[in-house]
Amino acid sequence: MKRIYMDHSATTPVDSLVVDAMLPYFTDKFGNASSLHSFGQEAAQALEQSRQQVANSIGAKPEEIIFTSGGTESDNLAIKGVAYRNSRKGKHIITSTIEHPAVLSTCAYLEKEGFEVTYVAVDSDGIIDTEELEKSIRDDTILISVMHANNEIGTIQPISDISKFAKERGIYLHTDAVQSLGKIAVNVDELGVDLLSISSHKIHGPKGVGALYVRKGTPLQTLAHGGGHERHMRAGTENISGIVGFAKAVALADERIVDDAKHMRHLRDLLINKVMNSIDNAYLVGHPTKRLPNNVNIRFSFIEGESMLLFLDMKGIAISTGSACSSKSLEPSHVLTAIGLKPEDSHGSLRITLGKDNLQEEIDYVAKALVEIVGHLRAMSPIAGKNPSLR
Amino acid sequence: MYNEKVMDHFSNPRNVGEIEDADGIGEVGNPTCGDMMNIYIKVKDGILTDVKFKTFGCGAAIATSSMITEIAIGKTIEEALEITRNDVAEELGGLPQVKMHCSNLAADGLHAAIEDYRNKQNIKK
Hints:
- Chain A has two domains: 4-10 and 257-386, Aspartate Aminotransferase, domain 1; 16-252, Type I PLP-dependent aspartate aminotransferase-like (Major domain) (Aspartate Aminotransferase, domain 2, 3-Layer(aba) Sandwich).
- In chain A, 40% of the residues lie in helices and 14% in strands.
- Chain A has helices at residues 16-22, 38-58, 71-85, 101-112, 130-135, 159-168, 188-191, 229-232, 240-278, 305-314, 334-338, 343-346, 360-380; strands at residues 4-5, 65-68, 92-96, 116-120, 141-145, 172-176, 195-199, 210-214, 282-284, 295-300, 317-318, 320-321, 349-353.
- Chain A has a seven-stranded mixed β-sheet with strand order 2-8-7-6-5-3-4, with helices on both faces. A four-stranded antiparallel β-sheet of chain A has the order 9-10-13-12, with helices on one face. Chain A has a two-stranded parallel sheet with strand order 1-11.
- In chain A, helix 1 (16-22) runs antiparallel to helix 9 (240-278).
- The longest helix of chain A is centred in the middle third of the chain and has 39 residues, at 240-278.
- The model of chain A has no long low-confidence stretch (mean pLDDT 95).
- In chain B, strands 1-2-3 form a three-stranded antiparallel β-sheet.
- Chain B is α+β, with helices and mostly antiparallel strands.
- In chain B, helix 4 (85-91) packs across helix 5.
- In chain B, a hairpin with a 4-residue loop joins strand 1 (24-30) and strand 2 (35-44).
- Helix content of chain B is 47%, strand content 22%.
- Chain B starts with a helix and ends with a helix.
- Chain B contains five helices and three strands; from the N terminus they run αβββαααα.
- Classes of the chains: A alpha/beta, B alpha+beta.
- Chains A and B meet through helix 10 of A and helix 1, strand 2, strand 3 and helix 2 of B.
C-alpha cells in the first residue's frame, strides 16, 4: 500500500544528503573532539564548522550556540538555566498557555522549587495577548518564554513585539523555535531574543540533536556537570555525527526555505479549501494567515479524532489528532482548550503537517479519504443524526 | 495499539444503526468526555432478538459497541444484564488499559437499554 506521511511536526525523514554527511563520523572520523591527537582534532574541526553553520543560519555568533540532545533539553536548559542563575534578582517567569510540554512542565517544576509562573492567555486563533503579557511583568520577573510557532495549530507569535518590552525592562526572552526553523525566517536579532531552542529532526536531520542559542552576556546555570564541553554549559562528549547531520540539515533548509515554504503553503491552502468545500461542519483551527506554511488543523463536528486517525492510517495516511481519546491522560489538548474549544470540539480535531516532499496528488487523495471517513463516522454517530444541516 | 480483533470490529462494525421501533434505548456517555453511545434493543419473549448501536468515540468505543451487540443478541434479558465490561474486553482479546472505560460504557449502554425496556413494560401494565 502507498503510504503518505503528513505528520512532519512530529518528525521528518532524514535527508539522504544529511546521511551522507554524517556517515564518515561514525567510522573514519570517529574521534572525541576533546582529544588532542589528529583523530580528536578532526572531530573538533567538524564540531566548530557545524557550530558556525548553525550560528550563521539564525544570525548568531558561533560561541552563542550550545549543542544539546534536542528541543526538550534546550528548553530545559534555557528556562532552568536562567531561573537558577538569576534567582537572586527575582523568581517570576512569564510564559503562555499554549507552550510545548517541554516548557510547561519545566515551568511547573520550577513552581515547586519556589518560582512563580504567570501563564498568559491566547485568543481564539492562538495568538498571545501581548497587552496582558506586558501587564503581567513585575519587578521580580526574570524570564519570558513564548514559543515562536505552535506545534499543534501552527500559530506564529509576535516575538519581536514581546522583545521590545522585555528589553525595556531588562528581562531575558526565550523562544522555542523548534517548529518554525526551516519553515519561516528565524533570526535571533530580528526576533530580539536572548535564548532560542531548535531541533534537528524537525528539519530532515537526525533525532537526538538540537541547539540552544544563548545571547552573549546572558547568565545561565549549567545543568549537566562534567568535562568542560560546550564552553562549560553542557558536559558530555559531543554527538559529532548528529551535530554534523544537524548542520547539514540547517544548510539544506537555508538553501531551500523560499521554495519549500511556497510549495507547502500552496498545498496547505489547497487542502484547507478542498476539505472546507466538500465537508460541512468542518472548521479551521488556528489563525488563517499567521500560521506555519505546513500546518493544517481542522476540526470536524460530531466525530472523534482517534477514529479518523485509525481509518486514515488504514489508507496509508499518517496524521495526528488533539483528541483526548488519543492521549495517555485522556485530557484534550491543552492548546485547543486554551484557544477556547469545548472538549467535544477538541475531540474532532486533526493536525495535518506537510513536508517539502508532499505532492499535490497526495493532497487530492487525503481530501477524498477525509470525505469518505468523515461521512462513515458521522453515519455511525448518535449526535450527527440530530443535526439536519449535515451533508 | 489495538489488536486485530479490535481493529476488525472497529473497521467492520457489526449492527450499526438505529432500530426504528426499538423496545428499549440506552443513551450513555456524553460528548464532553469524548464518547457517547446509543444502544437500541428489540425484545421478544424475554430474549434480545436485535441489538444495534450508534457511537461517537474512539476506536475502542466503536469496537466495544460492536462487540456488545454481538454478545447480547440471542441472550435473555437476565443473561444480558450479567454482561460486564470485562466480558466485552475479553471477547475483544484485550484493550489497552487506558481504554478500559470504553468497554464499561458499552456494558452500561446495554444495561440502560434494558432498563428503558423494563420501564416501558411497567408503564404498559
